[in-house]
């Protein structure tokens, strides 16, 4: 799983824009979230895999049409070659719930057509273009305008042409993706089959019950597909130590699976993960695969939080060994770690301390906040050791040497 996700090691060379696109293709979906206590999640997910890179590369890939935005696991950046796999969701958005305001849009059909005509005539738009003074809740106030733009996006009539300051810029689908023709639409069965194959490939090895969540597919129609695909030879069925059910591996990873089974894959990467990283976004899978109980506490009242507001899991040489509660103070150049928690039973070896400190320092530098201030740790004695390691900064976190 780590090798498939690009989280076992990093290349020694500096990252290039092509590495960012390759990482998105490897994951199949890069979840979008706007919280910016540290880097917004999609940028952080990429940093975990490729290391020091230019965040503008992600924006440039969107603007150049190499990737597009749509609902997958949640709102995601997706490889543009996968657009056909999501077109059915656009054409029949009965699944969309709050993502498409069905009754509201039915009541504002003429308004929706006026908005589309405005975009046709005047070009790309953003929600702030339509802010008007007036009665709150009226058509030209901000909230319903944003609501309509998002609904038209979910329906596939608008796409995200680019982002500025992380704000969405909308344009007509036919201008953003002029090459697409619905005559090329695959069947629903072909889409389900391909998404299952892509999910298993992205996961490296998967239990059947994990597959539907990856691209938020219908669980009922997806449940038996891995087994049928394995029977047809399109997936490999493998035994996994400790599992009472088979694992599934994509044929593209056959050699990797054999290497893993033979003990030839030795993860060496130590890094910090976004709460919305594909490795941990399925909390049940994270628990079963890594014995790591994790939930984001952003929406938990502060007095009830166990670990902190926006806690980042710590991946160390193939294991999730802890989590930290950070905040990047960009103006001051400070990367604050309010508290770092190590999992019960984790041996705090000198190597682990050095490599975790190096990962924190690398993340801080990438944020432009090179001064790390560590407030507290659990267990308490780890803090002094980490501060000493941060001061020495000797470990290459890319290779673990």
Description of the molecule:
By secondary structure, the chain is an alpha+beta fold. Helices cover about 40% and strands about 15% of the residues. The chain has 17 helices and 13 strands. It has helices at about 1-5, 15-25, 40-50, 55-65, 85-90, 100-105, 110-120, 140-155, 175, 190-205, 210-215, 220, 225-230, 255-260, 285-290, 350-365, 380-390, and strands at about 30, 65-70, 75-80, 160-165, 165-170, 235-240, 245-250, 270, 310-315, 320-330, 335-340, 370-375, 375-380. The strands form 4 sheets. Strands 8, 9, 10, 11, 12 and 13 form a 6-stranded mixed beta sheet that branches. Strand 9 (about 310-315) and strand 10 form a beta hairpin. Helix 5 (about 85-90) crosses helix 10 (about 190-205) and helix 16 packs across helix 17. The longest helix is centred in the C-terminal third of the chain and has 17 residues, at about 350-365. The relative contact order is 0.11. Residues about 135-140 and about 395-400 have low confidence and may be disordered.
Layout of secondary structure:
Blueprint: H1 2-5, H2 17-27, E1 30-31, H3 41-50, H4 56-63, E2 67-71, E3 75-79, H5 83-91, H6 102-107, H7 109-122, H8 142-154, E4 158-164, E5 167-172, H9 173-176, H10 188-203, H11 208-214, H12 219-222, H13 225-231, E6 236-238, E7 247-249, H14 254-261, E8 270-272, H15 283-290, E9 312-316, E10 319-329, E11 334-342, H16 350-366, E12 371-374, E13 377-378, H17 382-392
Helix pairs in contact: 5-10, 16-17
